[in-house]
Amino acid sequence: MIDIKKDFSLKESNSLAFDHRVEYYCEAKTIEDCQEFIGFCLKRNIPIFPLGEGTNIVLTKKIKGAVLKVSVLGKKKKEEDVIIGGGENWNDIVLWSLKKKLYGLENLALIPGTAGAAPVQNIGAYGEEISSRLISVEVINLNNNELIYLNSNECKFGYRDSIFKREEEYLITSIKLKLNKSSKTNTSYHSLHDYLLRDDIDPSQATPHQVCRAVTSIRKKILPDPSIEPNVGSFYKNLFLNKSELQNLKNYVSDLPYFKTENDNLFKVPLAFLIEKAGLKGKRIGKCHVSDKHALVLVADEGSSSKELIKLSDFITRHILKTMKIDIEIEPKII
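Structure (tokenized):
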């Protein structure tokens, strides 16, 4: 029997700790619970918003509808394939896979959120994305309450993007990943490569455990802890520019760092550099500010409001466009 709460506060359900409410709230620990609550909402024409740990959303007002928190747990492995419940904590899964001697997730260590939320924004870090490991997802169609499976191609992955971000009709209950028994690691990402060298580890010989520890250490050093400084991680997406766009930006930023990608005509530009170059690191509006640790992170101090955070974000976007003639895109979902 599901427990449906009314006029529920989401303060403890989002990493920015904004105290907005929702008309109906349910935490589902089984697929059957999910479908029961979805059925309840369908009968009453109540829109449903799926929720994991709330680490990539910005709540701006009371939600008119229902929030379904997915807490479906479970971990299964067969050879190199693993099936993970949508409610499992992502970093716990990374550590579990290492214990099981299954590799490929170590570069994604310490990314906040749940396994079910990971495909939504196609989480990625240090040269890896979950899309390269994902075989399929088990989802419930929120329009008809049917349990179906979508393969990786059907997820329509892009950079920090997927069908789940663009079309709000699926609830992810589990994911299936292809991992490796081989311990070969990807240490090509510049900051990871350099960190390993400074730690007297040959990047070409680094083990998955060493990569995991390195990634964890780097993230702890450069990113504020959401439990202490409320944030949603990177608030903006890094830039991917063609040669013409890159040259245009270099006209405004002569010392612009950029990196080659698999596409010879596409270059990655770290947006944090541009924000810092613009003098916006530490910029404050009300009780929200750009993190002193990492310029992509916006921190909501105690007593802050979503209006202040959005105002700060808009200021940064306009300033970068005005001074560098480049559009930037936010990463979290604004609700």
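The chain has a mean pLDDT of 95. The domain at 239-334 is CATH 3.90.78.10 (Uridine Diphospho-n-acetylenolpyruvylglucosamine Reductase; domain 1).
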